Amino acid sequence: MTSLHHQHAPGYRAIRWNMDWITRPLFGIGLALIAFVFLALAPAFFATLVVAISIAAAWEWHRMVSEGRNYHTEVAVSAVTVVLSVAALLLTRQTWIALLLLAAGAGVSWRLAKDRFVNPMWQATGVLYLGLPALALTSLRAFEPRGAVIIVGMFLIVWATDSGALIFGKLIGGPRMAPALSPSKTWAGTIGGSLTASVVFAAFIWFLGGAAGEAALFALLFSSTAHAGDLFESFVKRRFGTKDSGSMIPGHGGVLDRMDSTLAAGVAMALLVFFAGLNPLFGVAA
Questions:
Q1: Owning domain of residue 199
Q2: Structural domains of the chain, count
Q3: pTM for the structure as a whole
Q4: What is the rounded distance in angstroms from the CA atom of residue 182 to the CA atom of residue 236?
Q5: Does residue 114 form part of some domain?
Q6: What are the strands, taking DSSP E only, across 130-257?
Q7: Region of 15 on the Ramachandran plot (φ > 0 left; ψ -120 to 50 alpha; else beta)
Q8: In this structure, are 188 and 268 located in the same domain?
């Protein structure tokens, strides 16, 4: 039976000083600056950054789901698949070709892992889990005239959601949201993260001359994609008995730990822009 102690987070009383107070914001700001620099360059440069991050994340994913067995073949398949699909998207501007390559890569990963009895479904899932966001972010930057600004806005929503959830969750504590998936995620953090995203994105759109009220409501709802991405990665880590996906980024853990929310948000944003026809800048002049 789950005790009341396990159902509730302790809040501010459990906060203790550690180096993450310095390394987390420091490296977070550094990563944000790198992303903004590449966004300001030509779409191919941003796509290169996306591919590099995807390959680093693939290393962590396949290592995690391989449960101690050799995973280098699956990493290579994911890396080649992401490179080919993103390159095909940029060169042909045909989404179906890129998606076909992605599906083929997932199939190859499944077949190879099945032959070696190394969790084939999870290996194939990794190709899609990382490849679809890579295509989504590349498409937004390359094929949407205001793609760079849209991506900045999306990043702000995701980062504000993550930061707000961490701060409110630590300070308030209280009932845990989904202890079976993520033992550290609380309702206070979830709601606080969404409200933080709403305020930050509204301020961003207001600064650019758009409709702040509409932006606030959108960010409040869209932040659910960031929460979902975080919960999914937490579920996978618990499924395979891993606390962090890696240790590449001080204060954040692995690349997947830092990018889990962005992976889900990127796909959702691309679907809203290209298929639903949403203008996520809410009246900001071109």
A1: 145-286
A2: 2
A3: 0.90
A4: 10
A5: yes
A6: 174-178, 182-186
A7: beta
A8: yes
